[in-house]
Amino acid sequence: MIQEPHNVGTFFGCIGKDKFGEILKQKAEEAHIDAHYYEQDEEPTGSCAACITGDNRSLVANLAAANCYKKDKHLDLEENWKLVEKAKVFYIAGFFLTVSLESILKVAKHASENNKIFCLNLSAPFICQFFKDNLMQVMPYVDVLFGNETEAAAFAKEQDFETKDIKEIAKKAQALPKDNTKRQRIVVLTQGKDQTVLASSDKVETFPVLKIDSKDIVDTNGAGDAFVGGFLSELVQEKPLHQCVKAAHYAANVIIRRAGCTFPEKPDFN
Predict the structure, then answer these.
(1) Catalytic residue among 133, 216, 219, 225
(2) Do 126 and 158 contact (CB within 8 A), yes or no?
(3) How is the chain split into domains, by residue range?
């Protein structure tokens, strides 16, 4: 989405020393992402089977190496931590709460102490349910919280919000305790084809998504990630929130028209 300059984004994760690991490195390079992987040979690179049924998708993940990230083996290394110190915005998927809470907390606290932006995704209902303690240890450091309607419902239930209204859920999540008071939390909740809800300190707004004919939807896999990618591409350029949402909607709309998590060479977003 940013295009120029190249390599504005740095990516950390864990892979195996194998063909799939090489593919990940190659794809990151093609997308001009500066990927720094922790490479280990105990587990192969993670893989995932996607089953597409109409507009819906089911995933069967073999996490493998993705489960093996180690703070002391990678994040703490001087050359990697320097990249963290250089960054202004951080994004971590909620899935990573099952892998290395200590890595998340180290980055989250760094962001909070230096008034940088830390973003987290709820990622899945099971994260809200079974990794609630880990999630709530990180929540005070979260500046931007992403989630979809099913994740929001699970989160609300676990937090005893006593509401199923998505706007109320966004508002209550926005008001949870926060470490860095210089920044008010923003909560962004998507609802598939229904409007996106954005809660900031003083208001809750809704934004309609781009209309798409169901016959044009090829594969919804990656829509949530594309949404976040679009949002962050404008956020890092300090654009207003409504522009971030517009970019998010554009990116998700592009992804669902194509098989797999693929995108055209150049975006036509403005």
Answers:
(1) 225
(2) no
(3) 1-86
